[in-house]
Amino acid sequence: MIPASFDYVAPTSVAEALTALAEAGDDAKVLAGGQSLLPILRMRLNAPEKVVDLGRIEELRGVREDGDHLVIGAMTTYADALASAAVSEHAAVLHAALKEVADPQIRHRGTVGGALVHADPAGDVGAPALALGTEFVITGSGGERTVAASDFFQDLFETAVAEGELLTAIRIPKHTGWGGHYEKFVRVAHQWSIVAVAATVRVDGGTIAEAAIGLTNMGSTPLRATAVEAALVGASASDEAIREACAAAAEGTDPPSDLNGSADYRRALAPVLTRRAVLAAAGG
Amino acid sequence: MTRITVTVDGTSYSDEVEPRMLLVHYLREVVGKTGTVIGCDTSNCGACTVHLDGRSVKSCNVLAVQADGHEVTTIEGLSQNGELHPMQQAFHECHALQCGYCTPGMIMQAIDVLNDNPDPSEEEIRVGLEGNLCRCTGYHNIVRAVQQVAGQGETSGARS
Ligand SMILES: Cc1cc2nc3c(=O)[nH]c(=O)nc-3n(C[C@H](O)[C@H](O)[C@H](O)COP(=O)(O)OP(=O)(O)OC[C@H]3O[C@@H](n4cnc5c(N)ncnc54)[C@H](O)[C@@H]3O)c2cc1C
Ligand code: FES
Ligand code: FES
């Protein structure tokens, strides 16, 4: 299967890309790593007239530190983000989640920004980004704006990035000294998450001082398990206390039912996976 | 049509292509590298794996225009002076193929696994090959072949 015909441009700056998008209006599609878009075009689920490839825009690539934030360019591949010592040190839960995305070939091409804008509810990048309180830098013809994680994910495959705009970077408050773990539940290798949990905690003297939990595929967007977070803070980092605090993981969620599992099955998985994720995050 | 210049297995090619052409079709139908095969429509099977600037990619999920100015290595570019690449030799010796359809992609990914980590555990080899499906072998002999090359301490990264 091959895509329908389209015009192709590969700008080398964000400004040029925005101009190309503005010229084409709603018939244009942005191409990042292509690991979701190309399958969609090949299956003819979408047939844009113009494809604007961000692959040659160097300013969108790379990880840098900016005071107490990590800044990850939207076009940074999973593989490059995984290789970044700054990501493993200051955003351990994101590092852990990126290891679980797809397979090595796809991690060489797929980008952190592409995954977040694609916003597949089963995607593995949204939940850790949400848990880390990530800020999303969005650029359009009117300039740049920053959107909080809680406002970024709007619905299935829908984010705050509007037509004609680009996600240019994400800014992650450094979680230095926090443990992080991503517990992904699948039945066969190389599958999308049936449910997954991104847990990051700061343990101080055997007690959980701070905790943030993001859930994958427990609703149409990534969700915070706020009840669990509240129960964890001040609890001892013991198996027993963590088990108790994680019991409420499915509270307030609206998981899908599909061939991989019913909503009830997912609700039953959530506390189990959350306990495993928090235990591992607290131990590391 | 868009003009692209791509180095494939050490030779530079310059061609007019439709932007929608997939890299795998460019390699097979324009350059003639039919050693790289297509096994699925969903980018799941890994049979089409090649190296783009030294890193493995699924060439069915990359546009030819995205490879403009870059370097591609296919299974056909591995042997040198009539001698098999150590990974090809190991697949042969370990009986790591039956029908052989997954083999071009499997070998390219196996080389990437060792480029990334020259001394992987069995588990790391299996995880490193998770994007490559084999319907025949049951994988054990493929893993053995990769272990054999790793044991020789030769990852041959420079050759791919
Ligand atoms: C076989 C297979 C298995 C996979 N398994 C997993 C998995 O287990 N977990 C997982 O999380 N993902 C998985 N994926 C998806 C993969 O992670 C994709 O790479 C990712 O979802 C999209 O990133 P991309 O850079 O490839 O974006 P693209 O595919 O290029 O783009 C995706 C969408 O985002 C838009 N877009 C991209 N970047 C920007 C930007 N900067 N600004 C504005 N719009 C933008 C595009 O227009 C498009 O609509 C899998 C994919 C395949 C093919
Ligand atoms: S043909 Fe490319 S992954 Fe199957
Ligand atoms: S040898 Fe037949 S698919 Fe692998």
From TrEMBL, chain A:
Higher taxonomy: Bacteria, Bacillati, Actinomycetota, Actinomycetes, Micrococcales
Full protein name: Carbon-monoxide dehydrogenase
One function term, GO molecular function aspect: oxidoreductase activity
Keywords, comma-separated and alphabetical: FAD, Flavoprotein, Oxidoreductase
Keyword Magnesium in record: no
Recorded superkingdom: Bacteria
Keyword Lyase: no
Chain coiled-coil ranges: none
Native organism: Knoellia sinensis KCTC 19936
Cross-referenced InterPro entries: CO_DH_flav_C (IPR005107), CO_DH_flav_C_dom_sf (IPR036683), Diverse_Substr_Oxidored (IPR051312), FAD-bd_PCMH (IPR016166), FAD-bd_PCMH-like_sf (IPR036318), FAD-bd_PCMH_sub1 (IPR016167), FAD-bd_PCMH_sub2 (IPR016169), Mopterin_DH_FAD-bd (IPR002346)
Domain FAD-binding PCMH-type: 1-177
SUPFAM superfamilies given in the database record: CO dehydrogenase flavoprotein C-terminal domain-like, FAD-binding/transporter-associated domain-like
TrEMBL record, chain B:
Keyword match Protein biosynthesis: no
Residues spanning the signal sequence: none
InterPro entries registered for this protein in UniProt: 2Fe-2S-bd, 2Fe-2S-bd_dom_sf, 2Fe-2S_ferredoxin-like_sf, 2Fe-2S_ferredoxin-type, Beta-grasp_dom_sf, Diverse_Oxidoreductases
Pathway: Alkaloid degradation; nicotine degradation
Residue ranges of domain 2Fe-2S ferredoxin-type in the record: 2-78
Protein name: Carbon monoxide dehydrogenase
Record keywords, A-Z: 2Fe-2S, Iron, Iron-sulfur, Metal-binding, Oxidoreductase
Lineage: Bacteria, Bacillati, Actinomycetota, Actinomycetes, Micrococcales
Taxonomy, superkingdom: Bacteria
Protein species of origin: Knoellia sinensis KCTC 19936
